[in-house]
């Protein structure tokens, strides 16, 4: 009887509204609670290496999870309006840079990652989406996702989160546009053009209460998948926060080291991580002396040019097109890194 009560549409809508005050209280009082717990209950001393590491983890981990829970819930609702079929229809027939811009913006709000690269690529080709527009989508979708934005907002503030979104969009749009100009369709594996991808059955009308349920499901699914990455990333960050000397990171990744940006990109490409694991580490790198541009370049290379995605795409793309993709996107990341090292 109780479970049936919570299935009613009105209850589905009112439940998240009732939980919002609980979320707000937990978020507002998290910092004083952690200060009290670490420095009074545990009796640790401010400035001590171990104390600073424990404080960093005890504060950042629940804060990030709280932010993820809230944002993913609302993004989960938004995503119910975007299915693969609708996305293909929206991008079909779009050409030139306007198509690239639309594709990049759709990549932010649609629930696709690098593991979806092949089915998405096949569907886009079948729908007649130009190659350059397809790449704008495939670049933006994994690079600019809600997890990355939430973590950047929570660890750095809205300015850095906004910088990341804008620069990621610019890279996705321009890289796709350049790939489109180069007319590289000859480097797509021939079998791709013979594949027929069935239409997705996702255009059925949903009640808003059902969209609320999708929001809750998104929280359970995404937070359930990334919480361990968040914990590991923040654990590494906590160790660096407490023990890594600032001079070391400033010399390796500071703006005065001309090689720091290309080095960070080269290091980032073979690494396999998602935003949940890499952003907390980037946060501490900046705190310890790494420049903003170098840190952003490192993060973009890890998320946007990951080796596993290149291996997946090799099934549908020939090697010259993959190398062109890496070269164009990598050049964009290098420009962003040097630009922000110059400006900030």
Task: Describe the fold and architecture.
The protein has 2 domains: 2-79 and 207-227, no CATH class; 84-198 and 244-343, no CATH class. It is built from 17 helices and no strands. The model is unreliable at 197-203 (pLDDT under 50). The chain is mainly alpha-helical and 344 residues long. Helix 10 packs antiparallel against helix 17 and helix 11 (208-243) packs parallel to helix 14. Helix content is 75%, strand content 0%. The termini are far apart.
Descriptive tags:
mainly alpha; single chain; 75% helix; 17 helices; 344 residues; globular
Largest sheet data: none
**Which stretches are poorly predicted, pLDDT < 50 over at least 5 residues?**
197-203
Helical/strand content category: mainly alpha
Global geometry: globular
Number of strands: 0
Termini separation comes to 59 Å
Topology:
Layout: H1 2-5, H2 9-28, H3 30-41, H4 49-79, H5 84-91, H6 96-109, H7 117-126, H8 131-143, H9 146-156, H10 158-181, H11 208-243, H12 246-253, H13 260-268, H14 275-287, H15 292-304, H16 307-313, H17 319-343
Helix pairs in contact: 2-11, 3-4, 4-9, 4-11, 6-8, 6-10, 8-10, 9-10, 9-14, 10-17, 11-14, 13-15, 14-15, 15-17
Briefly, what is this?
The chain has helices spanning 2-5, 9-28, 30-41, 49-79, 84-91, 96-109, 117-126, 131-143, 146-156, 158-181, 208-243, 246-253, 260-268, 275-287, 292-304, 307-313, 319-343. It has 344 residues and is an all-alpha fold.
């Amino acid at each position: 009887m109780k479970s049936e009560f919570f299935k009613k549409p009105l209850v589905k809508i009112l439940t998240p509204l009732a939980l919002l005050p609980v979320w707000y209280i937990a978020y507002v009082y998290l910092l004083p609670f952690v200060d009290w717990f670490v420095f009074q209950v545990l009796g640790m001393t401010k400035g001590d290496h171990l104390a600073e590491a424990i404080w960093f983890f005890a504060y950042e981990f629940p804060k990030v999870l709280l932010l993820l829970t809230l944002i993913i819930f609302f993004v989960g609702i938004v995503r119910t309006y975007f299915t693969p079929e609708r996305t293909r229809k929206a991008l079909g027939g779009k050409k030139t840079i306007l198509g690239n811009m639309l594709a990049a913006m759709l990549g932010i709000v649609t629930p696709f990652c690098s593991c979806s690269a092949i089915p998405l690529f096949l569907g886009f080709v079948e729908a007649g989406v130009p190659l350059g527009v397809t790449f704008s989508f495939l670049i933006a979708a994994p690079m600019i996702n809600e997890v990355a934005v939430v973590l950047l907002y929570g660890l750095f503030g809205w300015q850095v989160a906004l910088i990341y979104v804008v620069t990621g969009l610019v890279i996705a749009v321009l890289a796709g546009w350049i790939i489109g100009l180069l007319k590289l369709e000859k480097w797509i594996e021939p079998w791709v053009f013979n594949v027929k991808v069935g239409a997705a059955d996702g255009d059925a009308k949903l009640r808003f209460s059902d969209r609320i349920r999708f929001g809750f499901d998104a929280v359970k699914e995404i937070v359930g998948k990334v919480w361990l990455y968040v914990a590991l990333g923040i654990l590494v960050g906590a160790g660096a926060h407490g023990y890594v000397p600032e001079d070391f990171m400033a010399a390796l990744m500071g703006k005065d080291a001309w090689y720091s940006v290309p080095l960070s990109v080269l290091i980032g490409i073979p690494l396999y991580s998602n935003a949940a694991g890499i952003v907390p580490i980037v946060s501490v790198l900046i705190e310890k002396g790494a420049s903003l541009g170098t840190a952003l370049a490192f993060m973009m290379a890890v998320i946007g040019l990951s080796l596993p995605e290149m291996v997946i795409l090799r099934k549908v793309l020939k090697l010259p097109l993959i190398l062109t993709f890496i070269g164009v996107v990598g050049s964009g990341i290098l420009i962003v890194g040097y630009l922000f090292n110059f400006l900030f």
